[in-house]
Amino acid sequence: MSLRTPLARAKGLGSAHEGVGHWWVQRVTAVALVPLVLWMVWSLIGLIGADYAAVRDWMRHPINGGLLVVLLLILFHHAALGLQVVIEDYLHAEGVKLFVMAVAKFAMYLLAAICVFSVLLVALGG
Questions:
Q1: What is the pLDDT of residues 3-13, one digit of tens each?
Q2: Which of 2, 5, 25, 44 is paired with 64 by a 20 to 30 Å CA distance?
Q3: Distance between CA 99 and CA 83 in Å, rounded?
């Protein structure tokens, strides 16, 4: 016995069984971002008025460079998850939705890769 209506069965609509995992990961990344963003704000306040060499030296410290990379990875992943929800909620044409979601995810992860590469380039002395 199914609780789905005949129309829902015909359309193939129903639970994708992925919502809880997506919701959970978004909450975990949000909680992880709180201390990382506070650390970043505190660090940036300490760097007010610093020249390029001081900022470069700050980024070359292993803890700062590592935390900055972790911040960027979690931030972009969290943003990609949120953007996916917005796209799923507000775009109704399946083809357009899939295309926009693919482009958005590609753009988010490309930007994350560029940012991480930039931090590593500075942090490792490139």
A1: 666 666 666 55
A2: 25
A3: 13
